Amino acid sequence: MILDFKNIEYLKFGNVKQRDAYTELKRLKIFENLKNHHPILAGSIPIEIDLPESDLDIICECNNHQDFSELLTKLFENKKGFGINFKIFNGKKATIAKFESNGFAIEIFGQNIPTDQQNAYRHMLAEYKILNNKGLEFKNEIKELKAKGIKTEPAFAKLLGLKGDPYLELLKVKV
Q1: pLDDT at 18 over 90
Q2: Where would I find the H helices in 60-171?
Q3: Looking at residue 24, which CATH number applies to its domain?
Q4: 3 by DSSP, 3-state: which?
Q5: pTM > 0.85: yes or no
Q6: What domain count does the chain have?
Q7: Is residue 108 part of a domain?
Q8: Domain that holds residue 59
């Protein structure tokens, strides 16, 4: 069964960290306040391969980086460690806001790409399918590699024996 990762309600029924994340995301009203940007929680927490220091990665669609950064500033400038920067990913500008709230590091990433077509979401779906197919031992091996400092996609590539760019190759895996 594939979870509906576009709706954070599944977190209410997850592990302790997922339930805590749900509570914090609801308290901050992130998904309500950013609904026009089609936010999706991506990354390792939704698929339970997170480490204690893993952050909440929220991807958004934004076609006006100035307006998006002003909205994020208005909403979260009072949060610990708040900052915004701009980078280029895959040839497209991205707005990235980071802050901390109630023990969670939170990153909000906006790019002019529909959220369900962004690589963070596509990678998470591929990883979720692989994890469901490979089982608990594989999941634990991924977490061990991550604990040693290997990023998620390279960890999957290593265990799956993928060659080339792990970020591209992961999207080609058939499950």
Answers
A1: yes
A2: 65-76, 119-134, 136-147, 152-160, 166-169
A3: 3.30.460.10
A4: coil
A5: yes
A6: 1
A7: yes
A8: 8-172
